[in-house]
Design a protein that fits this description.
Its main location: cytoplasm. It contains 24 helices and 14 strands. The strands form six sheets. Strands 3-4-5 form a three-stranded parallel β-sheet. A three-stranded antiparallel β-sheet has the order 7-8-9, with no helix packed on it. A two-stranded antiparallel sheet has the order 1-2.
């Protein structure tokens, strides 16, 4: 980053209470004058996200990289100092079980226990299962335009870049055991070692006790339980012949790479504490970071990959743009939030509302606006002239088989230049609305017949619309609707709107009816009213 930012923007960033700036201030406190190497040369602030390549990237991967990137950019805005983001793949981890969503399961089953980077690729496309999943991760991150450096655990272990810290692990073996053992059950304490040697014969990552023979040479002694006869082996842990248990590995990585910031979920709080203690033993320092809440499903239960009760990124992006997903993930990271299809329309409309507000805001308000962070301060100018909710209601009354062209035809009632060339973002939203209605709303819609005072109110609305005509404004139509609700026999005004939604749209809730009728057309709305009255 350079110092080219508007001074007012930088000053606003330094004072902003938005959560990314609060997080970035932790780094300002950690390194008030910036980060420097031992020889005094400036160093970039290092942000890290971790990934286990035993499966494909998912929405948790997206949210962690997104939020970390947002904090990274906030720090740059506040300081103008350089940063790096490392996406670290723990591909030396042993394959513990065969995933359900892969081919050639027998191939994986035959290689259980081996490092993921040494397990053959069941898809037959890459040199290993880890290489396949790492490629998927990088494609995934590139798809969303993240700027990052990919780092492989295997590369760092086998190249020797972790060797000095691994020697430190052996030099401080008893101190690390003193950190870890109190957290383990008695039976696990008896066999625990922070170092996991890799069998020279079977290639399996071993969970066995080890004895430090020569810390400076990196030599340990252990019993290889993966081969017949349980051979006693003396072997170096350097150069990829061992890895660490994941909690010690996390702390070692923080110390070895000099990580300054890494966020993680509240389910890893205890692991983060242990990792920080181990980093300190190894001469490092626990990074700053945000502990975020976990996503819940539609029933309020924790999302679990094994249960399959979550929502995938592909599902969200079928029905809403990636900006809407980023918007939803950005907000309130310390609050548990549901993640299901029913959230998408509101997230889409909220995103567009915040985007519409952005140009007129001062820097203080802009830096608290989620779209500033989603678009890294370069918020596109185009706005959405019709809400996503209104599009969904329009598609709903159009019925099965509605097309983009037909929707644009109705939009001509509302916009003077209703075409995709003039409104490319609106055209994109139409595609999402058609998909969302088809798969999620249409099966639930059911119009009911009007009853009681609703009949006379609908008849009056029909007469008023006939008088107003097609050229009436949305506001004039809305005023007429309000007048019917206020002067009719409804106990409350909301009962009148609920009746409109249920009898005309087939839903318990709906849009601002004046805007909807303007969009759908007065004549078309009168036909809906006639159908409703005929259903008595």
């Amino acid at each position: 980053m350079t110092d080219a930012f508007d001074p007012e923007r930088r000053a606003a960033a330094l004072e902003s209470k938005a959560w990314p700036y609060e997080e970035a201030r932790k780094l300002l406190k950690r390194w008030p004058e910036g980060k420097f190497a031992k020889d005094g040369t400036p160093e970039p602030m290092l942000f890290e996200t971790g990934y286990g390549p035993s499966g494909l990237p998912h929405i948790g991967t997206f949210q962690e990289v997104l939020r970390t990137t947002i904090v990274r950019r906030a720090y740059e805005e506040m300081t103008g100092r350089p940063t790096r983001l490392v996406a670290f793949s723990d591909d030396m981890d042993g394959l513990r079980k065969v995933p359900d969503n892969v081919p050639n399961k027998e191939l994986l089953a035959a290689n259980l226990g081996k490092p993921l980077s040494r397990v053959p690729d069941p898809f037959g496309k890459f040199g290993s299962f880890a290489a396949h999943n790492n490629a998927m991760l990088r494609d995934f991150l590139d798809r969303f335009g993240f700027e990052y450096e990919f780092v492989s655990s295997t590369d760092h272990y086998t190249s020797g870049r972790f060797d000095e810290k691994l020697r430190d692990v052996l030099r401080n073996y008893n101190k690390i055991m003193a950190v870890m053992l109190p957290t383990l059950r008695a039976e696990r304490q008896a066999t625990y070692s922070p170092v996991l040697p890799i069998s020279p014969k079977s290639g399996v990552v071993l969970q066995v006790p080890v004895e430090v023979v020569d810390a400076e040479a990196g030599i340990i002694r252990f019993v290889d339980t993966s081969v017949p006869g349980d051979e006693t082996v003396e072997q170096s842990i350097l150069g990829g012949r061992a890895k660490l248990q994941w909690k010690p590995d996390w702390g070692m990585r923080w110390a070895a790479l000099g990580v300054d910031y890494e966020m993680y979920g509240k389910d890893l709080i205890d692991s983060g504490v242990l990792g920080g203690k181990i980093a300190q033993v190894l001469g490092g320092r626990k990074p700053e970071g945000l502990i975020y809440e976990l996503f819940l499903d539609a029933k309020g239960e924790k999302i679990s990959k094994s249960k399959g009760n979550g929502l995938s990124i592909e599902e969200w992006l079928t029905y809403g743009p990636d900006e809407s997903l980023a918007f939803y993930i950005y907000r309130e990271p310390k609050k548990a939030k549901s993640l299901h299809l029913g959230l998408i329309p509101r997230a889409v409309d909220d995103y567009w509302q915040f985007r519409a507000n952005y140009p007129a805001q001062g820097w203080k308000e802009k830096l608290g606006n989620p779209v500033h962070h989603i678009h890294t301060g370069d918020v596109p100018a185009e706005t959405l002239p019709v809400t996503f909710g209104l599009l969904l209601n329009l598609v709903g009354v159009m019925g099965e088989g509605a097309t983009d062209e037909q929707v644009w035809g109705y939009l001509g009632n509302y916009l003077p230049d209703a075409n995709a060339a003039a409104h490319p973002e609106l055209d994109r939203m139409i595609g999402y609305a058609l998909a969302y209605h088809r798969d999620f709303i249409a099966p639930t819609l059911k119009r009911r017949a009007p009853e009681g005072v609703e009949v006379a109110a609908l008849e009056r609305l029909d007469a008023d619309l006939a008088t107003l005509g097609e050229d009436a404004s949305a506001e004039d139509i809305q005023n007429a609707i309000y007048e019917i609700g206020k002067t009719g026999d409804f106990a409350e005004l909301r009962d009148w709107f609920k009746a409109l939604y249920e009898t005309l749209l087939g839903s318990s809730q709906g849009p601002r009816m004046g805007s909807f009728i303007k969009l759908y057309g007065v004549a078309n709305t009168r036909r809906l009213i006639a159908e409703a009255l005929a259903a008595q």
